[in-house]
Amino acid sequence: MFGRLAPPELNVLVLRDTDVVAHGIRQALAEATPEERPGLERAAALVEQAAAEPDTALLARWVRERLAAAGHVGPVDSVRAVKTLREAAPGLSLRQAVKLTKDAAAHHP
C-alpha cells in the first residue's frame, strides 16, 4: 500500500469555437449584400484556416504568449522558461510545465 503513486497525467483542454464562428459567418453570407460578400468570404477562409490548426500548434502558441507576456527571452524549453510559465499559470505542475515547454520548443511557428 505504501510507495509512489503514479504521477498525474497532463490534462490540458483545448477549446475551439471555430465551428460556432463559421456557422455565424455562413449565415451572414447567406444574407449578405454584394458589397459585404468579399469581406465575409475572406473571414470564412480565415476561420477555416484556424480550424485546421492542430492542437499542438495552439498549445505552443499559448506557451509562447504566456512567456512573452511575462518578459521571458530565450529558449522556450529552458529551466527559466519552465519557472516563468509556472508563475504565469500558477495551476500548472512542474511536470505539466516541462511537457508544455518541450512541446512548444518542438513546434516551430
What this model shows, in words?
By secondary structure, the chain is an all-alpha fold. It folds into 2 domains: 18-52, no CATH class; 55-106, no CATH class. The protein has helices at residues 18-30, 37-52, 55-69, 79-88, 94-106. α1 (18-30) packs antiparallel against α2. The model has no long low-confidence stretch (mean pLDDT 88).
Largest sheet: none
Q: What is the 3D shape?
A: elongated
Structural class: mainly alpha
Beta-strand percent range = under 5%
Helix content: 55-70%
> Mean pLDDT, rounded to whole units?
88
Order of helices and strands: HHHHH
Query: Please, how many domains?
Result: 2
Query: Could you tell me how far the N terminus lies from the C terminus, measured between alpha carbons in angstroms?
Result: 46 Å
Q: How many beta-strand runs?
A: 0
Low-confidence stretches: none
**Rg, alpha carbons:** 19 Å
Number of helices: 5
